[in-house]
Specification:
343 residues; alpha/beta; eight-stranded mixed sheet; 8 strands
């Protein structure tokens, strides 16, 4: 990843008319500058734990995007099979699993939630979720069997742990069209119900497409202007939030970089920028909760996005395992009260 410095940004900014230069500098200061040093260099060998994790991740993606395949409102039997698999997998890890059902046009959809009650601050909640439906016409390996597999792997990693705060791991229905950005999204039903109960969700992490990577130059694209500040290789994981969630973006990426040898980039940007709000974190922003998306950037990198070629063999499970391990460390930090983090 290129080294981005304050001096370099200032030099770039002053090369433009004053108003544009000020805007560029403000964008960097508010949205792009992140804590911690991003990892750069060859990835270390996978240890035995990460190798085992990569195998579990592949098994989940193979089941969801391979054996079950396309799963959405047009293929309700497959969508229900995916929900059953997720429920059974979470229950087998020893979690209390509940389902939130809702009906649209006579069809019943399910959000699946596994929870572990916090020890000292049980009323404070950390949510990690990913949608398990796929868009019409695709088996949806990266989008979003990968994110669902990440949620299931976090359940495995945390099955024998309890934290100060309550942890909820959720698989959402109906993120894809025709429900995208509507009240029909599974995550909208979940977030609205949480707000109605008065749930104190202190952080929400949306795992959205986390399995596709490329080391080729110019394999990464961006919305306008952002490409000036980020690498041109699609070999990193992105942690993205809106301006209101800037503090959470900073905390998640700082923990990720502190513990994980894997390239990362972060942004706390206006939600109007293409891609920033394109997943279940949007539903939580609508209810006033801080939320971030963890993503490989999907259509800005992966040519298989929303295509029939989005299949399990297109993903990199070793890199997925590294990412999920880093996310697990960030989640553990969020779920642990600050006074206990040095213990």
């Amino acid at each position: 990843m290129p080294k981005i410095t304050k001096r370099g940004i200032i030099k770039r900014a002053i090369g433009y008319p004053a108003a544009l230069g000020v805007a560029i500098l403000a964008l960097w200061l508010v949205s792009i500058r992140m804590p911690g040093k991003p990892f750069d260099g060859p990835l270390p060998p996978l240890g035995s734990d990460l190798q085992a994790s990569s195998q579990r991740l592949r098994a989940h993606v193979d089941m969801l995007a391979g054996r079950i395949g396309e799963r959405n409102y047009m293929r309700m039997r497959a969508l229900d099979s995916a929900a059953n698999y997720i429920h059974q997998t979470l229950a087998s890890q020893g979690y209390e699993v509940v389902e939130q059902t809702f009906v649209i046009d006579g069809k019943t959809f399910r959000n699946i939630e596994a929870s572990r009650k916090g020890i000292s601050r049980p009323s404070e909640i950390v949510v990690v979720g990913g949608h398990y439906d796929s868009v019409y016409g695709t088996p949806g390996a990266d989008d979003n069997a990968s994110g669902t597999a990440g949620v299931l792997e976090l359940a495995h990693l945390f099955k024998d742990r309890a934290f100060d705060r309550t942890l909820k791991l959720v698989a959402f229905a109906n993120e894809e069209p025709p429900y995208f950005f509507t009240e029909g999204m599974g995550s909208r039903h979940y977030a609205k119900a949480a707000r109605a109960r008065g749930d104190d969700i202190v952080a929400m992490l949306s795992l959205e497409t986390i399995g596709y990577y490329s080391d080729k130059p110019n394999s990464q694209r961006y919305p306008p202007i952002l490409g000036w500040f980020y690498p041109d290789r699609g070999d990193f994981i992105a942690i993205v939030g809106n301006i209101g969630s800037r503090g959470l973006v900073h905390r998640v990426i700082a923990d990720f970089r502190r513990h994980t040898q894997f390239p990362s980039a972060g942004s706390a940007a206006p939600k109007q920028i293409p891609g920033v709000s394109w997943s279940d974190q949007w539903s939580f922003w609508k209810e006033g909760y801080d939320a971030v998306m963890i993503t490989d950037t999907a259509p800005f990198r992966n040519a298989n996005y929303h295509e029939g070629t989005d299949r399990p063999d297109s993903l990199d499970y070793g890199r997925m395992a590294r990412v999920v391990d880093g996310v697990a460390r960030s989640v553990a930090g969020l779920a642990t009260a600050r006074e206990n983090q040095s213990q």
